[in-house]
Design a protein that fits this description.
77 residues, mainly alpha, 31% helix
Length: 77
């Protein structure tokens, strides 16, 4: 039988972090047909104190390299 601490929900991105490495083979993903995906957004502030750095970060987040990192941690692109 299961106790209250035997089962829980956690974001797949957290599960794939090095801190939870021992659990990476002990999970069952929830069927994506059972929930609506959470859409993420991003904005670049016009009044950024460092607009060039903000633009570089913004461009990186949209890059293929960043997309691979997101996929590695369980995000859908």
């Amino acid at each position: 039988s299961l106790s209250a601490g035997d089962v829980g929900f956690v974001a797949l991105s957290a599960l794939k972090s090095h801190k939870l490495k021992k659990w990476q083979n002990a999970y069952k993903a929830v069927d994506s047909g059972l929930y609506e995906p959470i859409s993420q957004g991003m904005i670049k502030l016009k009044n950024s104190p460092n607009p060039e750095l903000a633009k570089r970060f913004y461009d990186f987040i949209l890059s293929d390299k960043a997309k691979e990192i997101f996929k590695k941690y369980g995000y859908e692109i």
